[in-house]
Design a protein that fits this description.
This protein is α+β, with helices and mostly antiparallel strands. The chain folds into two domains: 87 residues, no CATH class; 118 residues, Sandwich (Immunoglobulin-like), CATH 2.60.40.10. Helices cover 26% and strands 25% of the residues. It contains four helices and 13 strands. The strands form four sheets. Strands 5, 6, 7, 10 and 11 form a five-stranded antiparallel sheet that branches. Strands 4, 8, 12 and 13 form a four-stranded mixed sheet that branches. A hairpin with a 6-residue loop joins strand 10 and strand 11. Helix 1 packs across helix 2 and helix 1 packs across helix 4. The radius of gyration is 22 Å and the shape is globular.
């Protein structure tokens, strides 16, 4: 069974059309029209629209028979709104998009998404300013591509949650089994730094995975930071 959100097609078409039109006009605020900015704009729009899923041609006919013109107006308005936000707040890694290397084609160790939360050890509230570094076998991990940061910095929007996705590691034997040793180093202003280690046994796969899936994830226990003790002030 294939399930598809038909709005994805309309949004992507509207995003490309809007970017291409602005590229011709070139207003002062239009600073980039790369693939990453287009994808970020499409994601912005789709996260603000109720999806319209179909599983058949009949479903497509039903969706197209709805108020098509109003939907298009709503999509175009959100595209312009999202486009301006994306160009105003460019991602830190925006300029490095072309630096991603070729994808692995042979057998590899595929790593799950590492998902966890950093909390205040006294109030149990999520911490918003922590910096987290993930290392593997003593070396900082390379991420799947430039869109995944390591170290990563939490913000108020993430509610203490972090996600890492480690780049697949090539291997000669597709049936090889290996135990990897990982270390998380967490620091935040006003808190004592902490370190958390864990081991992960993996069996090699025939091909690398490049589509994230929360099904293939490892939930790391909540980690707690405690406020640093203030040094006494000498008179």
């Amino acid at each position: 069974m294939n399930i598809h959100n038909i709005l994805e097609d309309e949004v992507i078409a509207s995003v490309n059309r809007t970017f291409d039109n602005l590229k011709e006009v070139k207003p002062d605020w239009f600073t980039c029209e790369c693939k990453q900015c287009r994808l970020d704009t499409a994601a912005y729009v789709l996260n603000r629209l109720s999806p319209k899923y179909i599983v058949s041609g009949r479903g497509l006919t039903h969706v197209l028979s709805e108020n098509e013109s109003q939907t298009s107006i709503d999509v175009d308005a959100l595209v312009m709104e999202g486009l301006k936000k994306v160009l105003t707040h460019a991602r830190p890694f925006h300029a490095s998009a072309s630096a991603d290397k070729e994808k692995e084609t042979g057998p590899v160790f595929n790593f799950p998404l590492f998902i966890g939360t950093i909390c205040n050890g006294i109030t149990f509230e999520p911490i918003s300013n922590a910096v987290i570094t993930l290392s593997k076998d003593g070396v900082p991990c390379k991420m799947i591509d430039h869109t995944w940061a390591n170290p990563t910095t939490l913000t108020s929007h993430t509610r203490g949650k972090y996600i890492f996705w480690v780049k697949p590691e090539p291997v000669e034997n597709p049936d090889e089994i290996k135990r990897f040793h990982f270390k998380l180093e967490i620091g935040a202003e006003g808190f004592e730094p902490t370190v958390y280690t864990f081991d992960l046994p993996l069996t090699a796969s025939k091909a690398a995975l490049y589509e994230p899936s929360t099904i293939n994830s490892l939930k790391i226990e909540n980690l707690y930071l405690f406020e640093a003790e203030l040094e006494p002030v000498n008179d």
